[in-house]
């Protein structure tokens, strides 16, 4: 008897998609193509809550036209098709998203001996990844490598981008890949037919289909079956980034650009800053080579934030770290991280800074671009601002602010006025004027309450790090990196400040102990684990009884 | 839809649901009803859309208020030879309907009465995992479980009516989850006008007191069930050959399977090398397309002379296995019966689970039939096993269902979370519906769910006059009209319960696909809508009730929660939170917008954005929202590493992120962009004036920055 193991079996496809991505349409199109070709086709799915933003599997079986007498005289006149994908027996797996391809592998659908795995390298982050206070994203590189290991042939490309470029949806570009990968014996015209019959957005769907088709079409000369070939060229941003993390093209580009900058920073640091900072930029030559680029970033940032003398103050602070850096000739990580975090803290987000960021031309241009607005098209940008009493007084000269803060009447009046928050139209004459006036209050900043307070805190932090640096350079660097928990605004910022204070206390206690740096790093991760500080509380060394 | 009109001989390529609808029309059904719920929501929608065809045939159709209502509808078949069908999801629908069904089954039916069950079991299910089989046994209704094949399903509908009439018993047709969405083909017959319509019945009333469930008739009914109806049913099943015996004699072992598992069984045998794609099995099979009643003779005949038989029965308890053991024992057949000893006791019988069980059975009794060992049978540690998963488990995170982009329920839970920051946490009794997703991250609100419309009732015991806070109950508009008004609100009023009850009023029974309910705002010619929920609760005696007609105003939602939490009034405090389901709104609005754009009308499109420079990457906005369109992106800043918040193109501009930023005092990074399409002359002038002004004012700022920055 000709049997399953001898190849008398249907072609099987499992499509893993998220709700609203058109996985059902894709499955229907595949069925339509097969039925047009005279094949038996069956398609099943599970509906229900999985469709609401959860992940769903659509399963399709295609059986070739009846083979003469095989169909007659049997128990059934039609082939009996399965309603479940069977682990190890799926010919084509389509995943609309990289983590879903991982899930397909985990469930045994995609296997190295059989499966053509078509996956988009784009990511739709899960709620856990999104909620993390720091960076909760899973390792894309691992997912992609697993996709390579668990498939006979891998077609990995950013099908989401292709669809967006074509003004279509991802089901169309993935369908193109299903057609192009060669796993199904139907012509391109046959595949395009259901799109044309679908009637909605035919042209854009066909464009996305074509892009997907090309991505999946193997170069003709590739007879060797074994090694998995990743179509690198189709990763977005891969051209200048190399095969790093597919969906993190931004990081890859940043890394690439940073390398370029480091080279320039060694030879001609002045070219990386504006004319007003050239003399200062020349001074970075005294710093470890590895830290120069980051320092130049910091110089520009602090100068734009305040002025050239503020940048000078920044450089002075970085220089002190360079002086105690245990690895000046090498990676100089202490100096690098100091250059990063000192600048970030010195440019704390106050009202003036926010106003400046909101009024920059590049920002307005970016928003127009995002909205795909034509130059003559009216576009309004409304800011959701909620300045609090403390933030307002923070931005006032210290003496005045202190006086106002003492007055309960003023506090109550301002709180009542700001309770609702305000929506400001930046694109209106009045709105833009207000914001740009606020941005112009920059010269007053050094006298504000917040500025004074932050500089004191910065100095304490720097002294603490420098104090331990000679004995434990690693711990010093970890202390520097604790600036990462100072983020957000309002309550989030306050929480960050509390965490920071506890981390600094912990650092004092840890100083001189073995593994102090690692332990502080673990505490910092704990501080970023939840917004209530439970995790940090649990991990902090118990205060000795007095 | 027009496929429903096709006549005899046409081959139709359709989904399971449409095939069932067509089968009903071919069977001369006189009336149809039901209550929506996955996986048969779509059946209700198709019937609603087929209004015209139903009217032409004189078929009555209604959207029942609940499954109990739907089941009670079948009373029309008690005295009249009317074929009636109702549909709902199971087992929850059967729970609700069981009082009506028990009464119906007691008196019996004259016309065919068919209950089409959308069996929500296994992967993708949203309810507790139980079996409909128990209901069939307890009320003595027959249960059909056809093969997952479109023709078989269509045949089962027609046979179901006949079986019902032949045995005066209501029949349940189990439509498994995947069968509802199964695509396949069948050959159509002509639609049939019911020989008697409901109009004929109304105009010729009939009654027979012996059919009413009241002593002494009820005692007689029980006798009829076992003495008349059961034997009649068995006779019909045997005569019509509803159960199939396949290749008996091929071996001295055999497999008995529920019809719904047949395809998976054949696949498993194909994998092992003892069947082919056309079902030519080397192991004799008995396929129970009727799983209740069990036909004793057929079981005895199939098992006799066989060394061993394997029973495939999905779910638990193992009712069939117990039944078969009793039958064989009584008949003195000593064939070994295997079942849950070789197959999973609980859980879905997937291809992998069944292949393992069948392989174990064959290896034990006839190993020569296993000519191939599929990879899934390999040890997990074997590198060739499909489960020797070469992916790091840490890289695969769960993806729990959540509220859609623009969902009006999101701001309710954001507001509740913010209110709780001020008042402390509450016990929250949840209900069935999209709002149940609030139990997941990021809201983490809701401790129990006791059933549809029972959110309020689920909080009823947690009521103590001395407590420093009230209990919170949630209910959707679907659950409210299903039974919550009486079981929850009425109960709370009557018992002077101080709970705070939130009724989520989104214009539709949204979770089941957007069907209209009594309080829907839509004007529908066929139904009476626009009955306000607040009016209903006041009518039943609630004193403290408030309606918020824009849930997207998070600040107002939060403040109203605080007000309700702090209210000292006795009795339930009802908050009706009202905004239209975004999924349905988009379905309505998008075509309107497209048309307006095409017609050259001025259209404003809104969406939100986040300034990457201003965002510090703390994601507090995500932790009080969870919107699918609010996500994270790599930080473009060369100095910072943590990802920033980002709004995707799928944003519908509902405004929750902006309002959350306000209500929770988050950050100034959010902005809303309003793009004006087909601008008016005034718009065009405004653009020029504003651009000029902004350029003028920014010149100084840019010039200063240019001294420090490198030109891009």
UniProtKB/TrEMBL annotation, chain A:
Keyword terms: Oxidoreductase, Pyruvate
Region Disordered, annotated ranges: 233-277
Entry-linked Gene3D superfamilies: Pyruvate-ferredoxin oxidoreductase, PFOR, domain III
Enzyme Commission number(s) from the entry: 1.2.7.8
GO molecular function, one term: indolepyruvate ferredoxin oxidoreductase activity
Enzyme class label: oxidoreductase
Native organism: Patulibacter medicamentivorans
Biased composition (Basic and acidic residues): 248-266
Domain (Pyruvate/ketoisovalerate oxidoreductase catalytic): residue spans on this chain: 19-214
Limits of the DUF6537 domain: 297-505
NCBIfam families the UniProt entry points to: PRK08312.1
Protein name: Indolepyruvate oxidoreductase subunit IorB II
Phylogenetic lineage: Bacteria, Bacillati, Actinomycetota, Thermoleophilia, Solirubrobacterales
InterPro entries: DUF6537, Pyrv/ketoisovalerate_OxRed_cat, Pyrv_flavodox_OxRed_cen
UniProtKB/TrEMBL annotation, chain B:
Lineage: Bacteria, Bacillati, Actinomycetota, Thermoleophilia, Solirubrobacterales
CDD domains: TPP_IOR_alpha, TPP_PYR_PFOR_IOR-alpha_like
Pfam families, A to Z: TPP_enzyme_C
InterPro entries per the UniProt record, alphabetical: 4Fe4S_Fe-S-bd, HACL1-like, IorA, Pyrv_Fd/Flavodoxin_OxRdtase_N, THDP-binding, TPP_enzyme_TPP-bd
Protein name: Indolepyruvate oxidoreductase subunit IorA
Presence of the UniProt keyword Magnesium in the record: no
One Gene Ontology molecular-function label: indolepyruvate ferredoxin oxidoreductase activity
Major enzyme class: oxidoreductase
Sequence ranges assigned to domain 4Fe-4S ferredoxin-type in this UniProt record: 606-637
KW Nucleotide-binding (keyword) present: no
Annotated Gene3D superfamilies: 3.40.50.970
Top-level taxonomic group: Bacteria
EC code: 1.2.7.8
Keywords: Metal-binding, Oxidoreductase, Pyruvate
Species this protein is from: Patulibacter medicamentivorans
């Amino acid at each position: 008897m000709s049997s399953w193991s001898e190849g008398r079996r249907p072609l099987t496809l499992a499509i893993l998609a998220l709700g609203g991505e058109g996985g059902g349409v894709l499955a229907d199109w595949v069925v339509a193509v097969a039925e047009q070709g005279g094949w038996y086709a069956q398609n099943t799915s599970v509906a229900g809550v999985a469709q609401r933003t959860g992940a769903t599997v659509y399963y399709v079986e295609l059986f070739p036209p009846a083979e003469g007498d095989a169909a007659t005289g049997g128990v059934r006149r039609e082939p009996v098709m399965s309603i479940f994908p069977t682990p190890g027996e799926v010919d084509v797996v389509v995943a609309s998203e990289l983590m879903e391809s991982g899930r397909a592998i985990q469930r045994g659908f995609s296997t190295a001996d059989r499966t053509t795995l078509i996956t988009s390298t784009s990511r739709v982050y899960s709620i856990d990844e999104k909620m993390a206070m720091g960076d909760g994203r899973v390792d894309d590189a691992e997912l992609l490598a697993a996709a390579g290991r668990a498939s006979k042939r891998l077609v990995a490309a950013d099908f989401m981008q292709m669809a967006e470029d074509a003004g279509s949806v991802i089901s169309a570009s993935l369908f193109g890949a299903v057609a192009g990968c060669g796993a199904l014996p139907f012509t391109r015209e046959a595949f395009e037919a259901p799109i044309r019959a679908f009637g909605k957005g035919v042209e854009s769907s066909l464009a996305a289909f074509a892009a997907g088709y090309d991505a999946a079409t193997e170069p003709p000369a590739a007879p060797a079956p074994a090694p998995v070939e990743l179509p690198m060229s189709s990763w977005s941003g891969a051209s200048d980034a190399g095969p790093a993390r597919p969906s993190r093209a931004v990081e890859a580009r940043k890394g690439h650009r940073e390398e370029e900058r480091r080279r320039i920073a060694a030879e001609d640091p002045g070219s990386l800053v504006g004319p007003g900072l050239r003399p200062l930029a020349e001074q970075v030559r005294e710093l470890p080579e590895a830290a120069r680029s980051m320092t130049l970033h910091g110089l520009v940032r602090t100068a734009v934030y305040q002025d050239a003398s503020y940048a000078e103050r920044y450089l002075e602070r970085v220089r002190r770290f360079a002086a105690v850096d245990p690895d000046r000739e090498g990676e100089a990580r202490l100096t690098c991280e100091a250059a990063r975090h000192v600048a970030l803290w010195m440019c704390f987000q106050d009202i003036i800074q926010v106003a400046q960021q909101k009024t920059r031309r590049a920002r307005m241009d970016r928003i127009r671009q995002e909205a795909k607005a034509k130059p003559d098209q009216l576009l309004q940008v409304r800011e959701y601002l909620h300045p609090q009493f403390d933030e307002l007084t923070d931005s006032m000269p210290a003496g005045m602010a202190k006086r106002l803060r003492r007055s309960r009447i003023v506090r109550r009046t301002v709180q009542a006025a700001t309770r609702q928050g305000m929506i400001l139209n930046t694109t209106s004459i009045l709105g833009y004027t207000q914001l740009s006036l606020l941005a112009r209050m920059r010269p007053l900043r050094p006298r504000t309450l917040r500025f004074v307070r932050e500089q004191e805190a910065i100095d304490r932090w720097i002294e603490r790090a420098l104090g331990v640096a000679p004995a434990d350079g690693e711990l010093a660097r970890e202390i520097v990196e604790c600036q990462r928990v100072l983020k957000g605004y309002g309550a989030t910022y306050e929480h960050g400040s509390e965490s920071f204070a506890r981390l600094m206390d912990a650092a004092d206690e840890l100083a001189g102990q073995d593994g102090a740096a690692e332990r502080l790093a673990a505490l910092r991760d704990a501080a970023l684990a939840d917004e209530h500080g439970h995790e940090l509380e649990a991990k902090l060394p118990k205060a000795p009884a007095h | 839809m027009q496929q429903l009109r096709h006549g005899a001989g046409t081959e139709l390529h359709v989904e399971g649901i449409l095939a069932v609808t067509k089968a009903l029309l071919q069977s001369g059904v006189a009336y149809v009803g039901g209550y929506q719920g996955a996986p048969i929501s779509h059946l209700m929608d198709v019937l609603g859309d087929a209004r015209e065809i139903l009217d032409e045939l004189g078929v009555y159709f209604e959207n029942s208020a609940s499954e109990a209502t739907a089941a009670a509808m079948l009373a029309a078949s008690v005295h009249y030879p009317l074929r009636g069908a109702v549909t709902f999801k199971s087992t929850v629908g059967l729970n609700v309907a069981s009082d009506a069904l028990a009464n119906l089954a007691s008196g019996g039916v004259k016309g065919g009465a068919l209950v089409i069950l959308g069996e929500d079991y296994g992967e993708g299910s949203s309810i507790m995992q139980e079996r409909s089989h128990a209901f069939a046994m307890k009320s003595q209704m027959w249960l059909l479980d056809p093969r997952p094949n479109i023709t078989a399903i269509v045949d089962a509908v027609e046979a179901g009516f006949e079986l019902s009439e032949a045995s005066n018993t209501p029949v349940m047709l189990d439509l498994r989850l995947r069968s509802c969405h199964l695509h396949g083909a069948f050959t159509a017959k002509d639609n049939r006008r019911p020989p008697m319509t409901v109009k004929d019945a109304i105009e010729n009333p009939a009654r027979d007191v012996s059919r009413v469930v009241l002593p002494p008739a009820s005692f007689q009914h029980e006798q009829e069930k076992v003495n008349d109806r059961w034997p009649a049913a068995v006779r019909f099943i045997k005569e019509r050959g509803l159960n199939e015996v396949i290749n008996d004699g091929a071996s001295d072992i055999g497999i008995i399977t529920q019809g719904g598992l047949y395809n998976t069984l054949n696949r498993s045998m194909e994998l092992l090398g003892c069947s082919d794609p056309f079902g030519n099995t080397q192991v004799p099979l008995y396929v129970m397309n009727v799983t209740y009643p069990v036909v004793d003779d057929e079981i005895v005949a199939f098992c006799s002379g066989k060394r061993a038989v394997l029973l495939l029965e999905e779910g638990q308890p193992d009712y069939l296995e117990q039944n078969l053991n009793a039958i064989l024992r009584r008949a003195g057949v000593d064939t070994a019966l295997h079942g849950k000893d070789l197959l999973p006791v609980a859980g879905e019988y997937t291809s992998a689970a069944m292949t393992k069980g069948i392989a174990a059975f064959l290896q034990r009794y006839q190993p020569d039939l296993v000519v191939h060992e599929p990879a899934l049978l390999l040890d997990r540690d074997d590198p060739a096993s499909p489960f020797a998963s070469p992916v790091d488990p840490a890289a695969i995170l769960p993806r729990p269902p959540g509220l859609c982009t623009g969902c009006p329920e999101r701001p309710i839970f954001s507001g509740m979370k913010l209110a709780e920051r001020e008042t402390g946490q509450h016990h929250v009794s949840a209900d069935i519906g999209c709002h149940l997703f609030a139990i997941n991250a990021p809201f983490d609100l809701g401790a129990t769910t006791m059933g549809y419309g029972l959110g309020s009732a689920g909080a009823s015991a947690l009521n103590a006059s001395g407590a420093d806070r009230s209990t919170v109950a949630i209910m959707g508009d679907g659950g409210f009209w299903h039974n919550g008004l009486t079981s929850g609100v009425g109960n709370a009023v009557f018992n002077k319960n101080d709970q705070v009850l939130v009724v989520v009023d989104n214009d539709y029974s949204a979770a089941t696909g957007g069907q209209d309910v009594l309080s829907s705002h839509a004007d529908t010619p066929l139904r009476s809508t626009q009955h306000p929920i607040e009016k209903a609760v006041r009518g039943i005696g609630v004193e403290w009730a408030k309606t918020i007609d824009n849930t997207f105003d998070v600040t107002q939602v939060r403040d109203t929660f605080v007000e309700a939490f702090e209210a000292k009034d006795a009795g339930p405090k009802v908050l009706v939170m009202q905004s239209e389901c975004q999924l349905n709104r988009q379905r309505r609005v998008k075509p309107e917008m497209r048309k307006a754009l095409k017609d050259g009308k001025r259209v404003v499109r809104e969406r939100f954005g986040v300034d990457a420079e201003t965002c510090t990457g703390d994601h507090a906005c995500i932790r009080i929202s969870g919107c699918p369109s609010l996500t994270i992106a790599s930080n473009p800043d060369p100095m910072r590493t943590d990802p920033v918040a980002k709004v995707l193109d799928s944003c519908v501009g509902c405004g929750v992120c902006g309002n959350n930023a306000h209500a929770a005092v988050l950050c100034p990074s959010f902005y809303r962009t309003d793009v004006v399409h087909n601008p008016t002359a005034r718009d065009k002038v405004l653009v020029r004036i504003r651009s000029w002004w902004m350029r003028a004012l920014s010149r100084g700022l840019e010039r200063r920055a240019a001294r420090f920055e490198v030109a891009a």
